[in-house]
Specification:
Blueprint: H1 2-25, E1 33-40, E2 46-49, E3 52-56, E4 63-68, E5 75-79, E6 86-89, E7 99-104, H2 111-114, E8 121-128, E9 134-137, E10 140-144, E11 149-155, E12 163-167, E13 174-177, E14 187-192, E15 212-219, E16 225-228, E17 231-235, E18 240-246, E19 254-258, E20 262-263, E21 265-268, E22 278-283, E23 286-287, H3 304-326
Parallel strand pairs: 1-7, 8-14, 15-22
Antiparallel strand pairs: 1-4, 2-3, 2-5, 5-6, 8-11, 9-10, 9-12, 12-13, 15-18, 16-17, 16-19, 19-21, 20-23
Length: 327
């Protein structure tokens, strides 16, 4: 009876030896972790997070990038030859096991701009709320705004421009300084907002259809589109957009501000400007987030060392059992 008790005790000890390394192998390696899912309208574009390369975009899907919650990335850059470079700051940090979606959009550079002859070429993309406005870099005419923007090619090795001006008859002229120069195949976005010139007492009103007032829409995201009811009024530039309305016209009921990658903002229009008056509205856009459960992890591989240790333990157990049974 004593021998049988000893055999059972030895086998229990040896079994516990096998179980310890196996349990250790199931422990997840690393600290708390989340993911960024990067979407893009163009595939095979290079993805960089804080200048670290993470591969290329995929057609019809997202590229999932792991991120340590305690040390998140702060900036995303996506670029491809022939397209304007996308850059943006990253404001959302995923929680443990969560996924935050990042949406990027690349615009194709016009053919005439791509074939610029000479050294390394980059581009300024000037955004403006008034089509037909003329863009000047220093004193040089660089084209007109069409569909909200114009591309201006520059040589990265050439003499840099110091300021840009956007103007159109009937609107206030916009001028700002140029602080940076794009590198080869890179783009830098510049924004300009033109506001209608208010009629003075000595000037006959140029606008047909009655007296006018303005709505001034403020937003925290440049490039966001502003829509009154179903009418698109322009894009936010340097934090605001001024919208002219007729005080005798049919009043608008709602305004919506939206941009890809952000939750749309819709507000009610309950104030109407009088002649020459301005009514302010504010819209705060919040980046979209997508929380998704992690895919099932791949089962841990059995360590060959642990397997060998278990086999050795079983051999020792059988030998011990044989010895005690003879006694």
């Amino acid at each position: 009876m004593k021998n049988e008790y000893r055999i059972v005790l030895i086998l229990a000890i040896l079994t516990s030896i096998c179980m310890v390394p196996a349990a250790a192998e199931d422990t997840t390696v690393g600290g708390d972790q989340g993911w960024y899912a990067v979407y893009c309208n163009v595939y095979d574009a290079n993805i960089y997070l804080d200048e670290k390369y993470w591969g290329v975009t995929r057609q019809g899907g997202a590229v999932t990038i792991p991120v340590t919650i305690s040390a998140p990335y702060k900036k995303i850059r996506v670029q491809k030859y022939g397209y304007s470079t996308f850059t943006d700051s990253i404001s959302n940090v995923p929680g443990k096991g969560e996924i935050v979606s990042l949406y990027t959009t690349l615009n194709k550079i016009p053919e005439t701009t791509q074939t610029a002859v000479g050294g390394d070429v980059g581009w300024y993309v000037v955004h403006c709320n008034i089509d037909g406005a003329t863009v000047f870099f220093d004193e040089s005419n660089r084209g007109e705004i069409s569909q909200g923007l114009v591309y201006v090619p520059v040589y990265s090795t050439g003499l840099p421009f110091s300021e840009y001006t956007v103007k159109k008859d009937g609107y206030t002229t916009y001028t700002a300084t140029i602080a940076t120069v794009p590198g080869k195949s890179e783009t830098i976005d510049l924004y300009a907002t033109l506001n209608p010139v208010a009629a003075t007492a000595t000037t006959a009103p140029a606008t047909i259809g009655g007296d006018t007032g303005w709505y001034l829409v403020y937003c925290n995201v440049d490039g966001a589109t502003v829509k009154f009811d179903n009418d698109v009024k322009g894009q936010i530039a340097q934090g605001s957009l001024k919208v002219q309305v007729y005080v005798t016209g049919t009043p608008y009921k709602t305004f919506t501000v939206y941009k890809a990658g952000y939750e749309p903002y819709t507000g009610t229009i309950d104030k109407y400007p009088g002649k020459g008056e301005t009514v302010d509205f504010s819209a705060t856009l919040v980046a979209e987030t997508t929380t998704t459960n992690l895919p099932a992890s791949t089962p841990a591989q059995k360590s060959p060392v642990a397997a060998g240790l278990c086999g050795l333990a079983l051999v020792i157990g059988i030998a011990a059992a044989s010895v005690f049974s003879r006694k």
